[in-house]
Amino acid sequence: SKHCSGQDFQISRVLVSFNSAVTKEEEVLLEQYLVGWDELIKFMEALGTVFSFISQEVKGKIGILRELQSTARGNEYYSVRSMMDHELRHNLVNFHKQTNSGCRTLLRLHRALKWLELFLHKLGMSSDESNTSDLCQEAYNEALAPYHSWLVRQAASMAFLALPERKVFFDIVCIEHEGEAQLVLERTVRSIVRVYNIMQEAYHSRGMLNLP
Ligand code: 1PW
After folding, report:
1. Which neighbouring-strand residues pair with 22?
2. Residues in the chain where the model's pLDDT stays below 70
3. What is the per-residue pLDDT for 183?
4. Phi, psi (degrees; rounded to nearest 5) at 4
5. To the nearest 10°, the Cα dihedral for 66, 187, 145, 135?
6. Which residues of 92-115 are buried (b: 16+ CB within 10 A; e: fewer)?
7. How many separate domains does the chain show?
8. Residue 91 within any structural domain of the chain
9. Are the C-beta atoms of residues 185 and 69 closer than 8 Å to each other?
10. Structural domain for 155, as ranges
């Protein structure tokens, strides 16, 4: 359809961004990773105003990370691992209380990406009778709800109820024929899984999966 050109959201751009975020040495490039999230922001904005509190929150996290990249030590924020090692080396990561470290900020995006992965996977496997709100809620319950407060969980559930139905959804993500939906979504899911697994291991090996 018409909006699937130019600057609007296209799911293929998410795939390209997250693919290009991973180097041959299995490093995740922070800037490219954030470009992937810029695309997801467009996605959320296309889903309507009920998603604005979610997109605002994500924009805030992206902003904190870009801010860190723009400081004198910005070059240390080149990749996920270089960021982690820099912040750990300089005691910038607090394991007991909430700060705006790059590590804890990126961890929030990292967890949220799991939700998106599960949601897109479920969407790809779904049939005509499937309800996008249910799929989104199920993915959220599995991946993200355990990390959120009661209030955030309620607000998120309200937003999911306003998700458009499947056909409209496929139009928003710029999948023209339903037949290609599964393929496009699975490719995107694979690009997300690849980035996610590398980052999960990086957080895990440094004991940082539970940063407050
Ligand atoms: C339809 C597909 C959308 C996929 C994008 C996924 C984005 C998920 C973001 C959820 C945000 C909910 C509201 C904010 C909650 C924050 O408390 C929470 N942030 C996140 C990103 O999970 C935790 O951040 P905090 O409070 O520890 O700074």
Report:
1. 28
2. 1-3, 5-9
3. 86
4. -85, 40
5. 140
6. bbeeeeeeebbbbbbbbbbbbbbb
7. 1
8. yes
9. no
10. 11-204
How far does residue 196's CA lie from ligand 1's centre (Å)? 16
46 in a structural domain:
yes
Assess whether the C-beta atom of 108 lies below 6 angstroms from ligand 1. Answer: yes
Question: Is residue 77 in some structural domain?
Answer: yes
Instruction: Please report the ipTM that was assigned to this predicted complex.
Output: 0.94
Q: CA 58, 187, 114: angle at the middle one, nearest 5? A: 35
C-beta of 58 in contact with ligand 1 (< 6 A): yes
Q: Is 22 exposed, middle or buried (0-12, 13-18, 19+ CB in 10 A)?
A: middle
Q: Ligand 1 centroid vs 177 CA: distance in angstroms? A: 31
pLDDT of residue 51: 84
The answer to the question of residue 102 being in a domain is yes
pLDDT in tens, 149-199: 999 999 999 999 999 998 888 888 777 777 788 888 899 999 999 999 999
List the CATH number of the domain containing 59. Answer: 1.10.3520.10
**What integer pLDDT is reported at residue 210 of this predicted model?**
97
